[in-house]
């Protein structure tokens, strides 16, 4: 009897809490609505919280950030920047929780892979009306800007941008009798090099590939783009990967894994697995961008000079990778304008902020990696590249084939419902890498029907 | 009897009630701490999760009620059936291994006359490791090339096995990890139960000529029936929520061979950003677990 009473009281308390929580979800204050009420005076004080301040464990880059904040606030005294540090800057587990708890920064950091999902979910503000605050936006590569666009509306600004290429261990190339200055240009050459590297002995893996935790589908997309194929049809309504290019991706992996034995015995790799193998000096090649070399050097005990990056073999197109900033859907127009000024100052101006290579070289931070191609051949891009080469302290020549190819390779966006599609394609990738009798045609047909069903559901 | 007490308490004067409350104030204080913790960290999230499974939300705009749409979405997912089948298989295998092995270990430890304390510590040690560390340790054990298990098999001229990399062995490999991680707790609970059995029962059985297996069958098992049943139900409830093993070891692969309901729930919520779908899966799993929990409560109430 007593326990029933307590249970009733607790249930009621729970419902009250739930109701309170539901009630606390205020209607979104759209920028337009906020602007319409009472427009603040020009240059009225405004505070913006900005994510992805480098963590304390990275003191050099943090000091640069803090110095930039001070300089920016001196230039715009009415703007106050509240830096928020976190490492990694974004993880799926905290992103939605921060939104739900109202803790999301006014200017938040995103990876390209999440941008489409955020736009479709209405979780970012439309910044199109305020873009004049960041004049260099007009000079950014249109294919890069398209990542943050939905129709004519713009929802964010890129910070770094790169296409996928082929990362390789120059040291292992030399050991295997291969010329590290002439990296593979075709998949047949990749296959041949992988065989020679894995022949170095037990534990050496010629070519590594992902196949778990949605990363397999992600790299399948990279590979099929490189071969000129597509994952979905141009209207985004049907699967397009059950094609000669899709078949070639899987057949090639199957041959390297089971016929050549050049991919190692352990599979189901995810991001950190290949980074660890690359850093440990036992992996010859993998699909990746220059940021892989940065991660391997910074976090996985590799050395810059041991690695090189070249274009994805036979590629004319490449999956875009990178990161940027988007604005909280509840940010006011003043906050958006202030945020754009900050982005322009810190991330878009040659010789300044992230492009202050002279300062980075002086501070002992690696300079020379082609991790950011925001402008292509436009004037700011040329200026940035010239300064990067001038102050380089890592061997720029090791990345020259990649830089050369990037001039002509077309950057392509991820498909709609990317993570859901990647999860489905993981199955095909893991099948060819773990099962010798895997039937590529059946795998592609099965994945195709699942993706078609997913896309049809809207 | 309890009704009479309640009625009696209702007739108390306000002064008596006040005295009773002040006498038990400390107890209420302790209780309130636990209740607040449960309310915020267990009951409130459960209610929110229930609501979420019928909503579509981006955590920005007001949530939209969508009825059973989230449930339809997850029903239509090709991984849905695999997730339930894998979860059921994992639970079954975990019962075969994770339920029997600790009991056998407890029996052996109970019979030992020497080094009992040392061996108890050895058996319990894995529980002290953080789960992520224990799981990642097995990632190396399972490596088909340089892994400890295949090296050991090689000594006997066996193997190599693909372990996590084969749909035939991946789920079983996860069960082994789970069993190893939880072995210590189960063993200690069984050991405590075994040590509460009066030694006269064994002596009488021995006088009747019962061997080891007969003593276990006719004395040990009947005397520990309640704890065995309770552990069985707790084991089912715990293993059906398996997440960390597939999350850290296999990423649900190969070929969805280790996707579990909890892992799929994670995928929906955090990878796909579909919190309603994740909530729907969570609610389904919760309903199944409620059935087992109700049986557990019934059993523990009836037998105590």
Automatic annotation (TrEMBL), chain A:
Entry keywords, A to Z: Signal
Signal sequence coordinates: 1-21
InterPro entries per record: Bact_solute-bd_prot1, SBP
Name recorded for this polypeptide: Sugar ABC transporter substrate-binding protein
Protein's organism: Acrocarpospora macrocephala
